[in-house]
Design brief:
Layout (H helix, E strand, L loop, with lengths): L2 E11 L5 H11 L3 E6 L5 E8 H11 L7 E10 L8 E3 L2
Length: 92
């Protein structure tokens, strides 16, 4: 099993459409750890850690997001797995 970590920034209409709640639900269903939070510039930031295949699935999901989101850009940075999270959280 290969472990991975992805840092993701999602741009577009991604705040006020339950993006964080849907992301948390999706990540937990995949068994991923990390966090998601709104940023001051209107984007959403997330870190996903876990099995590489599952992290890749989460990153793919971020390209469309929940039903009312309009995703226009997704930046992904692949980083070294750190294993620093015990669960997947919404940060405020």
């Amino acid at each position: 099993m290969m472990l991975a970590r992805a840092y993701v920034r999602v741009y577009g209409v991604v705040q006020g459409v339950f993006f964080r709640a849907y992301t948390r639900r999706m990540a937990k269903s995949l068994g991923l750890k990390g966090y998601v939070r709104n940023m001051d510039d209107g984007s959403v930031e997330a870190v996903f850690e876990g099995e590489k295949e599952k992290v890749m699935e989460a990153v793919k999901w971020c390209h469309h997001g929940p039903p009312h989101a309009i995703v226009v850009k997704v930046d992904v940075k692949w980083e070294e797995y750190k294993g620093e999270y015990g669960d997947f959280h919404i940060l405020y």
